[in-house]
Automatic annotation (TrEMBL):
This is Iron complex transport system permease protein. Belongs to the binding-protein-dependent transport system permease family. FecCD subfamily. One of its GO terms (biological process) is siderophore-iron import into cell. The lineage of its organism: Bacteria, Pseudomonadati, Pseudomonadota, Alphaproteobacteria, Hyphomicrobiales. Its main location: membrane. The keyword ATP-binding does not apply. It is found in: Cell membrane.
Amino acid sequence: MNGTAFQPTQMHSITGYRSPGRKLVWLVVMLVILVLLMVASLAIGARPVSVSDIAGALAGHAQSIGEAVVTMRIPRTVLGVLAGAALGLSGALMQGMTRNPLADPGIFGVNMGASLAVVIGVAWFGIVSSAAYIWTAIFGAGVTAVFVFLVGSLGRGGATPLKLTLAGAATSIAFASLVMAIVLPRGDIAGGIRAWQIGGIGGATFARILPVLPFLLAGLTLAMISARKLNALALGDELAAGLGENVAVGRGLAAVSAVLLCGATTAICGPIGFVGLVVPHICRLLIGVDHRWLLPFSALGGAALLLASDIAGRLAARPGEVDVGIVTALIGGPFFIWIVRRQQVREL
């Protein structure tokens, strides 16, 4: 602009160019780590099991106690992969569409909005089906995302990263208080809601997982469609529009995808925080910020982080366990402070 043609090298500097060979190497490394964590998730718990028991259970046998234990852990591992991938991907989408390095479904209050909607549905409307939980959570996540963006857009400068973060944090605290106010008088649902509010993947079954798959698939599809548009948005709204991108459509696709992913995940796992904050930053260090690579890497990284956190929770309190939502908070809290101290909250 200003009479100077836009050069490809400018795009490379903005998208954090890394060579395709380096990206492929990290892709293989990430896949190997994820496979190893899946095996560890099947093997580690109150009762450790052997590799032969894992192989037997995966082959469809359940003749020994070890094989039966592995069979029970398979849905938990699958849910950990799906939920972690959805949260990592939604965090990358939120950071990309807002150009805010502090964006995360938990920090922006989206998870808590989905949680509040589910609690209201259970306490006041008696919802019980998986489909009702999912739709209610997605509705709550969507309304909260719009509310936080509108509040963060008030005043001078529009929706700055700092204002969005403060609006999200305040909304999350307010909604958490509302959840407690609704649950405390209801002894009949208080125990289950409190356990769900912590966030975890224990007790997973394929019957619980199957209803959420179409929503996660829709969110993943929209995310991949929005990847190029997010690269353009990284240049700034005016330049993105000058390059022929519809800024509103690009942000809308990313927003709908993020709401579907984190809303559906919250419905089945409860509000799990910080995965969407930590993972995209680590992935940018490895492969740059080209969203065509960053989004799938964030999904793989989110799955790996959630499984690793779940395994750590099982090891820390054997023969019991620490819920994965607590472990991710312990990891994400210091990471959040580190990002703030870097003083790079104005732009990605």
